Amino acid sequence: MNEEQAINGRLQMQKEEDYEAAELAPPAARPSAPTHESMGEEATGKASRDRKLYSGSAARRRSRNIRSRLAYSLCALSTVIATVPLLLILFYVIYQGAGALNLSFLTDLPKPVGESGGGMGNAIVGSLILIGIAAVIGVPFGVLAGTQLAEYRSPRLSWVVRLLSDILSGVPSIIVGIFVYTLLVLTFKQFSAIAGGVALGILMLPTVARTTEEMMRMVPDSLREASLALGIPRWRTITSVVIKTAAGGIMTGVMLATARIAGETAPLLFTALNSRTWPTGLDKPIASLPVQIYTYAISPFDAWHKQAWAGSLVLVLIVLFLSIGSKLYFGRRMKRAT
After folding, report:
1. Which are the contacts of 40, defined by CB distance < 8 A and separation ≥ 6?
2. 32 vs 14, 25, 26, 35, 187, CA distance in Å?
3. Residue-wise pLDDT tens digits, 199-254
4. Quick check: 148 and 161 in contact, CB under 8 A?
5. Closest to 265 in 3D by CA, of 323, 203, 185, 182
6. Rounded to whole angstroms, what are the CA distances from 161 to 145, 165, 225, 243?
7. Rounded to whole angstroms, how far apart are CA atoms 15 and 21?
8. Smallest Cα–Cα separation from 145: which of 175, 170, 169, 128?
């Protein structure tokens, strides 16, 4: 009992010492219970801070909305500016050429000077032949070049191919026509559809190559890795996975290249020349819509001017049908694949 009393006495003394120390401590160091006034001031300060934060976030939100609407308006205005000239050209060509466009224009041969009627049937067929030859030459080599740039990525070779592609895309078409004229026409001493197709195919190459490269680079690497992980060879992965995935974009590039070469006149004057008869062989001169339009446009006859506008309309419709048809076909294929 004496020990317990001693322990309790010491504890009591310790409590008294702690109380005295707390009494002697400065007011800032004393622990004090929160009063109603301090709690009110703290709540008021917190509410003011909340109001400032909310007003600041609201102002930032309004600023973002204004910038977003401004950017959207600028994009819409740019779309209108880019679309209006195209629509004006299309409507003007339709307005000028629709009156002379009929079945005989699509199926008949050109009439001699002074005779009414006639058409550009041979030129329409000739243009389709030239575009086909150009596609046979330009599309495979362009896709292969784009595949090399996108998949194998050899630094030196890729740099050279990309540089040459950029230079070729900026070369005037008449220079390409003179080159093919020297290479084929003078060698074989004959204007021909093959020479015209080669010239147009060279003009297709850079557009197809660069579009193929960009579209294949957009294919996710996970698809390549998944195919390679299954043990599929790299060449099969490229042909069966990468190219099929990017087929829609590649065809868009092909159609852009086709639209460019469809209206080229200068290279055909040096290579395919022209003809007033139906095509009889790829090794002979051949008619084409651009050359026929040019010939009729510079003539002094009003009837030929009307037919030139009708030929322009047919040329535009051919490009539109090819573009829309390819879009629909590859769009369905992509939906089936997914």
Report:
1. none
2. 21, 12, 12, 9, 107
3. 999 999 999 999 999 999 999 999 999 998 999 999 899 998 999 888 888 988 89
4. yes
5. 203
6. 8, 6, 26, 20
7. 10
8. 169
pLDDT per residue as tens digits for the range 175-192: 999 999 999 999 999 999
Helix axes 155-170, 193-217, angle to 10 degrees: 130
Provide CB contacts within 8 A for 286, sequence distance 6+. Answer: 126, 129, 130, 192, 193, 196, 272, 273, 274, 275, 279
Query: How far is Cα 235 from Cα 238, in angstroms, rounded to an integer?
Result: 5
* CA atoms within 13 A of residue 4's CA, in its CB half-sphere: 1
Q: Is 305 exposed, middle or buried (0-12, 13-18, 19+ CB in 10 A)?
A: middle
State pLDDT tens for residues 86-142. 899 989 999 999 988 889 999 999 988 777 788 999 999 999 999 999 999 999 999
- Residue 309 three-state SS: helix
Handedness of CA 288, 132, 254, 331 (dihedral sign): positive
Does this model's pTM top 0.85? My answer is no
Taking each helix axis from N to C terminus, what angle separates 302-337 and 289-297, rounded to the nearest 10 degrees?
150
